[in-house]
């Protein structure tokens, strides 16, 4: 049977498409895309003609059966999303989960993803990090999720859109505290790429300083909560003791 290729596309700058992505998109029998109009533009840019098929969250289950039939008939299929790597806050999970468990051949064609691109320039610890994707849309759910992460010691990576970036930063300011270190990457690889580095107090000022700062696509990276180490605890208790003793001295 055929192969399902999971193909990454650029997150902004079309120059970031890989050689293998182009070769793969040219040779496959069908390209499944989140938004066929958007992908048509991308393919046209690279002179690729393809049989485009829509695969989004609303028709994924139905489409899986069709894709299996195509693969069984020996066709090769590519899955792409609007930008970056499929399945990373994008459709494709059910497809890969089901086909993977049925031992269909699935091959990655790696390329850009906003999370790794952003981490590579953040200067926050990357030896361990958590990917939080998009926060819940409603404020109650969002605040709950942030509260659950308040003591997380690893770097946290959030995706955010222009609609909610200011509210999200304000909520983080309240829940994580003004002094928590953050890096905000905006419009990566695009014309108006911008990176803010500082603390949540500074970021809250920056995001409200200019309406342009709230436009576009964002990756928000939050430094981990500093764990109080045993020696910190000992230091603070010995400091307390010292204060008491000093008060007692004549
Ligand atoms: N599959 C994509 C990936 O691999 O990164 C992510 C798709 S998700 C629907 C879109 C979100 O990714 C945006 O809201 C933003 O948080 C982030 N993103 C995508 N492109 C970006 C860029 N050029 N600069 C900053 N963030 C970006």
TrEMBL record:
GO cellular component, one term: cytoplasm
Keywords: Cytoplasm, Methyltransferase, rRNA processing, S-adenosyl-L-methionine, Transferase
Domain called Tetrapyrrole methylase: residue spans: 4-202
Main location: cytoplasm
Keyword Glycosyltransferase in annotation: no
Catalytic function, reaction form: cytidine(1402) in 16S rRNA + S-adenosyl-L-methionine = 2'-O-methylcytidine(1402) in 16S rRNA + S-adenosyl-L-homocysteine + H(+)
Keyword Cytoplasm: yes
Listed GO MF terms: rRNA (cytosine-2'-O-)-methyltransferase activity
The EC number(s) this enzyme carries: 2.1.1.198
Signal peptide coordinates: none
Top-level EC class as recorded in UniProt: transferase
Protein location: Cytoplasm
Matching NCBIfam families: 16S rRNA (cytidine(1402)-2'-O)-methyltransferase (TIGR00096)
Record function comment: Catalyzes the 2'-O-methylation of the ribose of cytidine 1402 (C1402) in 16S rRNA.
Family: Belongs to the methyltransferase superfamily. RsmI family.
Protein name in the entry: Ribosomal RNA small subunit methyltransferase I
Record organism: Cocleimonas flava
Lineage: Bacteria, Pseudomonadati, Pseudomonadota, Gammaproteobacteria, Thiotrichales
Gene (name only): rsmI
């Amino acid at each position: 049977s055929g192969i399902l290729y999971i193909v990454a596309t650029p997150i902004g700058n079309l120059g970031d498409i890989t050689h293998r992505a182009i070769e793969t998109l040219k040779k496959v029998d069908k390209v499944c895309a989140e938004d066929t109009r958007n992908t048509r533009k991308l393919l046209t840019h690279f002179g690729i003609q393809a049989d485009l098929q829509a695969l989004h969250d609303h028709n994924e289950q139905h489409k899986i059966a069709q894709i299996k039939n195509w693969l069984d008939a020996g066709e090769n299929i590519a899955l792409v999303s609007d930008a970056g790597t499929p399945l990373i806050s994008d459709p494709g999970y059910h497809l890969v989960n089901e086909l993977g468990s049925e031992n269909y051949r699935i091959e990655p064609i790696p390329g850009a993803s906003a999370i790794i691109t952003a981490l590579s320039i953040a200067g926050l610890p990357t030896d361990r990090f958590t990917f939080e994707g998009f926060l819940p849309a409603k404020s109650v759910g969002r605040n709950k999720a942030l509260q659950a992460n308040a003591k997380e010691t690893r770097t946290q990576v959030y995706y955010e859109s222009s609609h909610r970036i200011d509210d999200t930063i304000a909520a983080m300011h309240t829940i994580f505290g003004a002094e928590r270190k953050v890096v905000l990457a905006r419009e990566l690889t695009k014309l108006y790429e911008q990176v803010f580095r500082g603390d949540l107090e500074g970021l809250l000022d920056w995001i409200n300083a200019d309406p342009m700062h709230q436009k576009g696509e964002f990756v928000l990276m939050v430094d981990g909560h500093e764990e109080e180490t045993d020696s910190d605890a000992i230091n603070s208790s010995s400091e307390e003791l010292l204060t008491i003793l000093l008060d007692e001295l004549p």
